[in-house]
Amino acid sequence: MSRNAEELADKIREIAGDAPVRVGLILGSGLGHLAGAVEGVAIPYDELEGFPHAGVSGHVPQLVIGQLEGVRVAVFGGRAHYYESGRGDAMRLPLEVLKALGADTMIATNAAGSMVPDMPTGEIMALSDHINFSGLNPLIGEQTDARFVPMKDCYDPALREVFVAAAKAAEVTLHQGVYAWYSGPSFETVAEIRAIRTLGADAVGMSTVPEVILGRFLGLRCGAISAITNMAAGMSDESISHSHTKAMAPLGAAKLEKVLRAALPHI
Ligand code: HPA
């Protein structure tokens, strides 16, 4: 754990109180409203030195610490993507801070394109696994042997079971599937989508995978849920753009919030 992370955690505790955080939530494009549901304190990333500027529209760059469904959470309103800086480890410091605040669990959310005809826009999907199709890795340059992180079951099976039970209780359809990480920021070509479909991916997006690698590196239990904002390139006539992503994200966000609220007390 870097000294910087410990210092930032101290600063956050001074502002938000000493009680340890249980769960970290990372909010994807257009999924930021969940931060507003937390009873707590919002700290702009600007006040946390080394935190990403989170310069992508549809993200609110602040950390909210407080209670959600009786669980102490840290909600990251914005994330740094690889494509913003060319740095795969852009979320390392925020996740180290999460760990230093006491969290043992990290849940990432994202907007994603679907490659499954029965999983259209507005649906949500719990990640069962991922394909790192970018070939990039946030641990490149890490000097210790801890860099050799096992990734089997990186999406914690027990946590996924909690999501499934929560979705059932909330009467929300929750798909499960494999997420492929493309670096972005350009969207995929039709041939690229055909390729990753053939390789076994169900959804595609530009985030989450580096965070889950870092989360496992830090010993956090990881889970992730995608909100499907479009059918992937070539899968339908639907337009694909960032504004479409932001416009469609609220459809899934409402379901995501129901599932997360129902899941949190059981995590
Ligand atoms: N591709 C990559 N990232 C995305 C998509 C997509 O189709 N939709 C939302 N984020």
Instruction: Write down how many β-strands occur, each being a DSSP E stretch of 2 or more residues.
Output: 9
| Distinct small molecules bound, one entry per kind | hypoxanthine
The amount of beta strand, in percent, is 15-25%
Question: Could you give me the name of the CATH homologous superfamily?
Answer: Nucleoside phosphorylase domain
Gap between N and C termini:
24 Å
Helix content: 25-40%
Shape: globular
Our count of helices gives 7
Strand order of the largest sheet: 5-8-7-6-9
Main sheet overview = 5 strands, mixed, barrel
- Structural class comes to alpha/beta
Task: Give the integer mean of the pLDDT values.
Answer: 94
SSE pattern, N- to C-terminal: HEEEEHHEEHEHEHEH
Question: From the alpha-carbon coordinates, what is the Rg to the nearest angstrom?
Answer: 17 Å
CATH uppermost class: Alpha Beta
Q: Could you name the CATH topology?
A: Rossmann fold
CATH architecture: 3-Layer(aba) Sandwich
